[in-house]
Amino acid sequence: MQYIIYDLEFTVSRNARYSSEIIDIGAVKVMQGDDGLYVADTFHSFVRPSNRPVLSTDTVQFTGITQRDIDAAPLFPEAVKQFIAWLGTDSTYYLCAWGPDDRQKLVSHCRTHHVDLHWIHNTNDIQKQISRLSGSNGKYRQLSLSQALELCNIDFDGQQHRALDDALNTAQVFMHHFDRITLTHNASDDEESRGSKLVYSTPEEEQEQYSPFGNLANLFKDR
Q1: Region (Disordered) spans which residues (predicted)?
Q2: Which of 140, 153, 170, 213 is at a distance of 20 to 30 A from 73, taking alpha carbons?
Q3: What residue ranges in the chain does DSSP mark as E strands?
């Protein structure tokens, strides 16, 4: 079984007429070895946005991605084609991200660019899983990636809001908590099926209760 920990970075837009576009894809392939989990491979590609190819100042400041990086990058269909090729022919993998936004944006982009969704399956929200483990009595607060690393006594390695660096750090948290998290099988185009089939569970299942401030926290989260 392969565990694909991926991260996406998007354009930052203050104009409601323009939706954000993926400009950075990073992923880590985690596998099980004789001595436990290990990072087997990594993937990275910048993505040239098709609607607004010139990056805003906000985007550059937030991500550190430059116009030169983007100008030399492939458009989304080619970048995601490279990503799918990197995943390989073995379809027995989980796609894990920090939070729900990356999956939603990935599916949206694939639909917009007429990319088949068959490969987007077994998606899991690691932020939700780790935040849940940090709580008690079924109550928890949503953790940022930096907070989750701190609880694991792991320093952030690299630059925040860069896709590969965020994916690598998420993988560290994932491997640290692997024996306690829940992973599920689900389909790419079935929102209701996500989380419906339990395949790996914590020893003690807690009744999940959502914080009333969860959605607000999403707006300001440190991914």
Answers
A1: 186-214
A2: 170
A3: 2-10, 22-33, 36-46, 93-97, 123-125, 183-185, 197-200
